[in-house]
Amino acid sequence: MKNILFITWDSDKTNYLENLFFPIFSGLQERGVAKVSVLQFSWADPKEVRRINELAEAVNIRYSHIPISTHIPTSVASLYAIIGNRKKVLNSIKSDQINTVIPRSTMPAFLLLSIYKQVRELGCELIFDADGLPIQERLDQGGLKEGSIMHRILSGVERKMLINADKVITRTQRSIDWHLNNLPHLNGGKFFLVGNGRDSKTFYFDKAAREEVRKKLTLTDDELLIVHSGSLGPAYSIELLFNILKGFQSAGLSFRMIFLCRDSVYLNGKVPEELSHLVQLCKVPFLEIPSYLSAADLGISLRTTVPSVRGILPIKVGEYLMCGLPTLISSGIGDLDSILGQSDACFFLKHSNFSIEAILNWSLGVKYKDRIGIQNLGQELFSLETTLDSYEEAVK
What is the DSSP string of 70-83? Predict the structure, then answer.
């Protein structure tokens, strides 16, 4: 059995650890594949850290937290966090008898490279979680300037880790192609595709829950319930979504649009006045999300068409499909076009050339689609079990 240390670097509020990685790590432990410890660097306050620690303990995962200072510039605080905690990380590797270290994305990779010789002397395997295309994402939408000192530093860290890691995990084949194109001397055999799966005991189509939620939302049988679940921001093509909804409205389609999200601040002032009575924000507990997806008729997964989207495997697409929900998807996201392009459960929208009428015509038929058939497709492609199979192959 592998003894893994997973190192991650986060902001003050994240939920992907408990909602994505804890179930995956718990599943690997139940399969006898690995024992996993998590080390998180973040700006989270003590209350949030305690919350995450309690969730980790509930699934028998050892969790440690290293705070990043909020009183000095971010770049300086990050450097201090790395330099000041190298010895602590090495001591954890020794005391916990770690034999595999997985740094997730660029900053944990920076930390590992700074103690690379010592980690190798301890006999550890290095698996780099390349996490999509994070540097390109910062160029596309995070304000990072191409050719700047910070860009050169981050690119150098990623390049060195790609070269020195024993294995690299990504979520899309297009990410692998990107890295091999930039570093053609790399051994393609060191790359492994892993999923972002959900538990099929939680995410499935529930007809009773559908009726209950629709009644709660005071929806008629004829009204189309459209849902966007998850994060909001410039990357999610919200303006395009509202233009599509205006087209639906002009065509006389009866619908309601709900956003399931923890933080709806981004929508302030962005909902067109003519749609305001049709748009609703819903903050619901994670375990209630499947009920709302069962109640919905159409799921939304739109992303701006920038180079970094080729590295993305949206968790929400798996959630939608596992709940039997037909889905409108931006063309070009990760490998989704090749995986789902032939399925009538999805409509792929090309941002540069699309027809509102074509989207409308497809949407008019979503209520008549086979929800159980879509659920089965989602479980086949995006279930936690499928994800565990991919992780087991990568870490064995």
Answer: SSS-HHHHHHHHHH
pLDDT at 13: 77
CB atoms within 10 A of CB 323: 30
140/126 Cα distance (integer angstroms): 29
Q: Which two tokens stand for residue 273?
A: 């006045």
Q: Tell me 145's DSSP state.
A: P
pLDDT computed for residue 140 by the predictor: 94
At residue 111, the 3 state secondary structure works out as helix
Number of H helices, E strands in the chain: 17, 13
Each residue of 19-31: pLDDT tens digit? 999 999 999 999 9
DSSP secondary structure of 183-224 = STTS-GGGEEE----B-TTTSS--HHHHHHHHHHTT--TTSE
**Spans of the chain, pLDDT less than 50:** none
Quote the pLDDT of residue 384.
98
Distance CA 128, CA 29 (A): 20
pTM over 0.85: yes
User: Does the CA dihedral 77-170-48-111 come out positive or negative?
Assistant: negative
Q: What is the DSSP letter of 32?
A: T
Q: What is the pLDDT of residues 274-332, one digit of tens each?
A: 999 999 999 999 999 999 999 999 999 999 999 999 999 999 999 999 999 999 999 99
H or E element in which residue 323 lies: none
Core vs surface per residue 211-248: b (16+ CB within 10 A) or e: eebbeebebeeebbbbbbbbebeebbbbebbbebbeeb
Domains and CATH numbers, the chain: 2-198+385-395 (3.40.50.2000), 207-383 (3.40.50.2000)
Strand, helix or coil for residue 126: strand
